[in-house]
């Protein structure tokens, strides 16, 4: 099994930055991909970014050029650097992974963290 633990959320002014971390344990390195989803109040859950442990990266159009996903294989940790934050980025951000399906191709990965809240004020 894979355990995921997010951290780094908080309150930030529009235009500011935050870095989210997802610490993975268990058989995380055996997953095909790992990444981030978010869900705002009244909105559908949406894909944000994903990476493979070997280095491939994928982004939703809404965050390209502003967010960067990276990983530290030695620490089994995935990061999401969020720059130029907008109020519409406000959401609960989840780390997610799947052993067989690319995260960017599904909104129902097998493993999920508990989420970390990101709030961007105007």
Task: Give an account of the 3D structure.
The chain is mostly beta strands and 122 residues long. Helix content is 0%, strand content 52%. The chain has no helices and eleven strands. It is globular, with a radius of gyration of 13 Å. The N and C termini lie far apart (40 Å).
What is the structure about, briefly put?
The chain has strands spanning about 1-5, 10-15, 20-25, 35-40, 45-50, 55-60, 65-70, 75-80, 90-100, 110, 115-120.
Mean pLDDT: 92
Strand content: over 45%
Radius of gyration: 13 Å
Molecular shape: globular
End-to-end CA span: 40 Å
Key features?
mainly beta
Task: Write the topology of this structure.
Layout: E1 2-7, E2 10-13, E3 18-26, E4 33-39, E5 46-51, E6 57-59, E7 67-72, E8 77-82, E9 91-98, E10 111-112, E11 116-121
Parallel strand pairs: 2-11
Antiparallel strand pairs: 1-3, 3-8, 4-5, 4-9, 5-6, 7-8, 9-10, 9-11
